[in-house]
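Re: weekly structure request thread

Next one in the queue (317 aa):
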Amino acid sequence: MLECEVPLLRRGDDAQGLTPDVESRRTRAAQCGATRALAVASGKGGTGKTTVAVNLAVTAARAGRETTLVDCDVEAPNVHLFLKPRVDRSEPACVPVPVVNEEKCTACGECGRMCRFSAIVSLKTKPLVFPELCHGCGGCALVCPTGAIAEGKRTIGRIDTGSSDGVRYVGGVLTIGEAMSPPLIRQVQAAAQGGGLAILDAPPGAACPAVETMRGADYVLLVAEPTPFGLHDLEIAVEVVRRLGLPFGVVVNRATPERPEAREWCVARGIEVLAELPDDRRVAEACSRGELAADAVDGVGRAFEALLAVLERRLQA
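Done, posted below.
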């Protein structure tokens, strides 16, 4: 078992470690130490989100931008397969959990009544603690009238940092069997300190891990594909981003003239399509070899340069 050096959640957060959206966005940007944070997200897996994120990061670094690529897909990280970073440091990621001093405990049950996740339960007995359910808010310790609850630590994964091709890399790996990834995602974002542009490669979908990643961004780039499933899940992702109050745009990946549905859907709803990346077998072949599409296929590099220029204008708005 790896030992943790510091607790990683703040008592000021609510029971899920969440803060209001706008305040959270600014706080996360400050934590990342980045001038701007760009989240690359998608409504479903397999749209090419990581391909876009990695190629954008390398394009930005080669253009002289200080760039950090953050792999927030901690349950299935894959940025390293394409970026191939040299990992300089790997450290454990931990969350606080309650530790009960039974000698001080009076079995009053205040801790159990406070916890909405049933991570600590007292049925007129000494409390039972279920660490895997704990969100690390510290509320049980705050309401304990005898001070019987202290804060322990539990390892949930690790955070790797390194660099490659002028890009600083930060990525998280969730421990196998661990149920909650948002605490690790928050820590990965906090570890991405430094100036310049932070590109957050979000988990796919529109559930808690993706939301947690997007809430740390100034702008969201949604990567869609022109298929029925892709369009359906794009609608869900757009609804989530709008609820978060974040500015966003769409990139249609694997676009073909025969399948204009995604662009037409966006245009009809006033959603900006920032780029359409063509359906090219050579891109898929490059990805299967772990190569950058911008290097392997003529014209793709210029497409990412153009996309980067548009995104920089949006981030400065």
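The mean pLDDT is 88. DSSP finds twelve helices and eleven strands in the chain.
Next request, please.
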